[in-house]
Amino acid sequence: MVSIIWLGHAAFKIVTDKGKYIYLDPWLNRNPVSSIKTKDIKKADIVCVTHGHNDHIGDAIEIVKTTGAKLVCSPEIGHYADSKGLKYNEASCTLNIGGSARIDGITIHMTFAAHLTELYGEEWLSEGKMLPGAGSAGYVIETENGVRIYFAGDTGLFTDMRMIGEIYNPNIAILPIGGKYNMGPKLASIAVKWIRPEIVIPMHYNTFPIIKQDTKVLEDYIKESIPGVKLVVLKPGGKFKYSNT
Ligand code: ZN
Asked: From the CA of 167, how far away is ligand 1's center (Å)?
């Protein structure tokens, strides 16, 4: 049994079949809708960061420091984390698009994401200084028992989502629907058609008024055009459990 908990915005916690804790894009302390803060996190095994925007890299470095989790990220974010005290490719496991790593029985593949970004770290928060070269990615996470979760990160629609569906055949797809900085519900519904997961969990919406969305658009489209796909709408703090056995 795998649990997926939406922490609000693009932040998720996954508890795997074997009880490993994976955090995805854990932006918590400054996240207005976050269901937890970093002080609530006592255990983490893997922390995946899709890109350097502050609402994604968020509190990842602090969580890795306090829990000893492995940071999964691009080489650029890995070097940035090294400058903050997380030894490159020891505390971190850097990947680039198309690459994979196996950590604690969990396989993580880095996938393409269509999204512009630089790196907004601590320097951004303290002095408004942006650092170059982080790029954006998504992840496919395969748990110990073979549950496959596609976490798209921030992305526009791109046709290679068909390939992600074909190659990784994800059980669950977590897709952004905010429609301002990534796909809106209509484009996300096309993504669902291309990826063909069993379950879709929308994210990256209703954090701020500017990315307010109604999941009904996605729900209606899925019902009409993509039978067999189930939309799971969570509230921040809400949990979805999935078993492939
Ligand atoms: Zn972003």
From this structure: 25
